[in-house]
Amino acid sequence: MDELDSAIVEHLQRDARQTNRELARKLGIAPSTCLERVRALRNRGVITGYHAAVDLRALNRPVQALLSVQVRPLSREVIEGFKTYAAGLPEVLSVFVVAGSEDFLVHVAVPDVDQLHSFLLDRFSKRREIVNFRSSVIYQHLSNPVTTPLGPAE
Amino acid sequence: MDELDSAIVEHLQRDARQTNRELARKLGIAPSTCLERVRALRNRGVITGYHAAVDLRALNRPVQALLSVQVRPLSREVIEGFKTYAAGLPEVLSVFVVAGSEDFLVHVAVPDVDQLHSFLLDRFSKRREIVNFRSSVIYQHLSNPVTTPLGPAE
DNA sequence: GTTGAAATAAGGCCACC
DNA sequence: GGTGGCCTTATTTCAAC
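Structure tokens for the assembled complex are given below, as produced in the milestone run.
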């Protein structure tokens, strides 16, 4: 994981579909070298995949929310069960299992606030393990396009 | 945005680097047709980009946390200012601007808990607009690989 | 909007440095 | 580990349906 690897990872996070030749040109190395590096990064598991990003509004899902969920009892079975259940719902973008006063944070995207309400009533309220939940509408969500390595003493 | 478009978007979310020919073959259409559809989805803004996903452990950032932040006064300037500040920090993966008791949720990834502590002290404690914050370590983070369109009455 | 074929460009392998 | 050349394969354009 040297400087060249970091640069490759950064460029591919910005645009995963640029050609190998273009990437090699930007980095000032031969295309075959570049290809070898990229392949090694993939095999070592540094790059885990290539994904298209989509506009949630175009998919009729402009309303986002974060749902804090508390479950009981705090057993492995209950945690795993709810986690798997939530991650499998089509409205759910991602599930955070967290320490602290809440046990889960569930990021959802739905067509409108009515369907957010319906989602909570139909998918959450009926679950017996949920002892408490709270929903926060998301006004805005900014994602950092690139994730770079951090040193021990940044 | 018909069935074919949805199928293309789903496949490209799973693997953005599959060749156009392969994608066309899976969908049972001609490569040129497929290319035209993909280009249209990109131009219409349905597909916003193609990004490589990276393993945070490989980047020496295995410790993740969600930081709830409350700022005051709740003016446009303060909100915008903190949002831009947080999004620009290298430790930050994404920033949620939320309704409810907290104003922001900041998703960070750092090398270890010591650096999480340092981050809070150096980057947050000194900001005058922050009146309260709370940090929750993330035990696990599951992301739904595909985001599909949702109908008005799912 | 979709297709097939032809031209252009890229990916991938191998011998060499 | 990096490079340059050759062959294979894919992307892209375009005329026709």
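The helical segments of chain B are 3-14, 20-27, 31-43, 76-88, 113-124. Residues 116 and 122 of chain B are 10 Å apart (CA to CA). Further analysis is deferred to the final report.
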